Amino acid sequence: MVGRHRRSSIGLLPRIASAAALAALVLGGAAGPTAAADFPPSDSLYHNYAEMVTDINAVAAAHPDIVEVHSIGKSYQGRDIWIAKISDNVATDEPEPEILIDALHHAREHLTLEQALYTLHLLADNYGTDPTVTSLVNSREVWIIFDVNPDGAEYDLTCLHSAKPPYCAWRKNRQPNAGTSYVGTDINRNYGYHWGCCSGSSTKPSSLTYRGRAAWSTPEARVVRDFVNSRVVGGIQQIRAHITLHTNGELVLWPYGYTTANVPRDMSVVDHNTFVAMGRKTASLNGYTAEQSSDLYVTDGDEIDWMYGVHRIFSFTWELYPTEKPTVWGDHYPADERIAPQTARNRNALLYVINVGGCPYRAIGQTKALCGPFYDDLEISRGWQVNPDRTDTATRGAWSRGIPAGTSSGGHAMQLARTASGTKDLSTGRPAGAGPNAYDLDGTTTIRSVPIQLPAAPGPLSFLYYFAHTNSSSADSFRAYIEAGGVRTQIYRELGTHVLDPARWARVTRPLTAWAGQSVQIVFTASDLGHDNLIEAAVDDVRIERP
Ligand SMILES: [Zn+2]
């Protein structure tokens, strides 16, 4: 059997690998995992798939209290896609911020697997001796997906006839494409956010950047998606920062790739500033160049766009060593002597991202406002529940999260199209295309946040709101409550009046010391209980701050 050979017979490996490759070609190459392939003796410090599995299992066995290894799914050919979790009390899902690192979307980018293994060893082997590493492992949950594309990476080691044997210069996965002999999809053009939107990928199966027949058509992208989706716990995405490792160019890239706009509608200014600050700081630590992903070239359906666009994860592509070379061989196949210096080069940059990834807004000095136990700019779903008591009477205009419309009454603003941050807020109804009052509130509507654990010394609750009304009375109101242990306590209210009050964002800040150490939920209600009046309420930028 060709597979599972050991390194001691190193001189014979290229021929054996070649035989496996020829067999795979004759058989169509897609029936299942083919025999293990290997690097040539001159590059033997690189890890093939089997060697990677051996290494990560050895680390987990040596550090069982802080390292766990799991398969999170299978590649097209059935290889396990392995993840390690590194944290204190590793078997417990503690309420600690999570950081995700992944590698080897692109088969020929073997240095990325070495960087992932380096990161595992950095955290595991220095735990208990290096104070910085120890503190990060104790206060974070770090996930590493070592090899997103194991089929492609193994296949890449099977081309003895190539210009630089045994490498195939392969990039995509090994999924066949119906109606053509061209194999493979570019996994990093297959993610389902603006997939195929913008000429940043190819429709041709022959292309290196073939995007697939549909978003998520590759099992490998689905495995990453399902894992990241599974980290939404209690309505909140636990992963705050992410690095996907690629070669090459010595670059730190932030989203978006699909557009050259710096701050498109699906990114807030605050988040863009945070990306720039984090990216530049990272680059200052590893000597790379930081820029927006689309500054390199436009890509669509890539991983970091999805991570941020859907989950608001501060997600970066790192293009590792070397800088641009004139050939694919120079770009993606550095000699194995480069592994140690070029992975160690990223030590401080990795520790920085794992550290600031606890709350990326620290990078722009917004720790007090935005790094407390809760911050919601309402740009993505974070678990708010409408009508939680099933007692709401609103027949229309119930709270909803989305892009508001600009509406007015007699020239006075009622629902503001402009939100406090980004493009979405909570407001009482959306235009339904059924007349000017189709989004007017009638009755009472209630919305409640997910449970939030307050620390022993909590900072205040702070939110932006407006309560716009015409022909109103004190029967109408906007109210905010804190709910804890089944008791709902009003902390703010505005009642209606007969004086017209147009929409205008205002910030409310209220102390939460009465609920120190408790699990609380934030509740907003808006009521239109009078007649012949027009009521619009909205909420944005809800925070529980640091003291
Ligand atoms: Zn790549």
List the helices and strands and how they pair.
Layout: H1 13-26, H2 49-62, E1 67-74, E2 80-86, E3 98-103, H3 111-125, H4 131-139, E4 141-145, H5 150-155, H6 219-230, E5 232-233, E6 236-237, E7 239-247, E8 251-254, H7 269-286, E9 289-292, H8 293-296, H9 303-311, E10 314-320, H10 328-332, H11 339-344, H12 347-356, H13 367-370, E11 374-376, E12 385-386, E13 399-402, E14 407-409, E15 412-415, E16 425-428, E17 443-448, E18 452-453, E19 461-470, E20 477-484, E21 487-495, E22 506-510, E23 519-528, E24 534-544
Parallel strand pairs: 3-4, 3-7, 7-10, 8-9
Antiparallel strand pairs: 1-2, 2-4, 5-6, 8-10, 11-24, 12-17, 13-16, 14-15, 16-24, 17-23, 18-23, 19-22, 19-24, 20-21, 20-23
Bound molecules: zinc ion (ZN).
Beta-strand residue fraction = 15-25%
Ends distance: 64 Å
The coarse overall form would be elongated
The amount of helix comes to 10-25%
Number of helices: 13
Query: Which class of secondary structure composition applies to the elements?
Result: alpha+beta
Tell how many strands the DSSP assignment holds: 24
Strand order of the largest sheet: 1-2-4-3-7-10-8-9
Bound molecules: zinc ion
The largest β sheet comes out as: 8 strands, mixed
Radius of gyration: 27 Å
Mean pLDDT: 92
Low-pLDDT segments, ≥5 res: 1-33, 433-437
